[in-house]
Amino acid sequence: MTTTTTSTTDVAAEATVARTTGAGFVTAALQSAKRTVLQFFRTPQLLMLGTIQGALFLFMFRYIFGGAINPGEGLDYVDFLVPGFLVSGILWLGMPAATGVAEDAATGVHDRMRSLPIPRASVMFGRSLADTALTAWGLFVAGVLAFIVGFRLNADFAEVALALVLLLVAAYSFMWVFITIGLTSKSAQAATGTCTLLIVPLAFISAAYVPADSLPGWMQPVANNQPFTIFSNAMRSLTLGGADAVGLGHSTAYWVALSLVWCAGIFLVFSTIAVSRFARRR
User: Fold this and answer.
1) Model's pTM, two decimal places?
2) Which secondary structure element, helix H or strand E, spans residue 32, and what is its range?
C-alpha cells in the first residue's frame, strides 16, 4: 500500500514539474512559427498579395520608369534594378508582419502566450522565422519574374549563393523592426501607417531603384549611408561581376561586410526591444 501510494505521488510530481517547466526555447519557437505559417495558409490573400505586389512593382519599374533611367557604367537598367528591387522587397513584403503582430496583441493572443510555461522570447523568435519565410517566398517569385523580364547574372555559383544568404539575413534582421512596430502600435491600422512612413523613404531615398548620385546633392549623403543602399550595392557587386563593373568605389568584400554589420546592429537593437516589449506588455 505504501509502495503504491509513493509511486502515485512520484508520477503526480513529475507531471506537475512537466507542466511547470513547459517546452524549451527551440520547441516553443518552432511551434510559434508553425502557428503563424498556418495563419498564412488559412488566409491565402496573405500569400497572393505579396506575390502580386512584387510582380506589379517589378513590371512598373522595368517597363514604365526604366526607359527614363540611365544607370551608367554600360549597364542595362533591368540589371541595375533587380538586385536593388529584391533588397527593397524586404520592406514591402515584410510590412504585414507588423500588422499581424499588432492584431495578435489586440485580440489577446499575446496574453495567452505569456500565460504559458515557455520562454517568452521564443514567441517572437518564432514569429520572426515565419514572417521571414513568407518574405522569402515573395522574393523567390520576384526573382523568377526578374529573369523573365530580362535580368541576367554575371557571377559564379559561390557569389550567387552568398547573395542569396545575404538577402535572407537582411530580411530576417529587418523583420525585427516590423515586429517592434507591431508591438508598439495600438492597432493594426496604426502599425500599417507607421510601416508606410518608414518604408517609403528607405526604399526611395536609396540606390535601390536609381543611382544615388542622380539624387539631389543634399539627399545623397542620406541615401549613401542608409542600410538599403548598402544592401543594394552588395547585391549588385555579387551578381553583376564585382564592384568595378557597377561603378562602386569599394570592393565587393567591403559592401558585404558592411551589410553584415548593419544586419547585426539592426537585429541586436530591435530584437532586444521587441522581446522586452512582449515580455512586459499587459
Assistant:
1) 0.87
2) helix 25-42
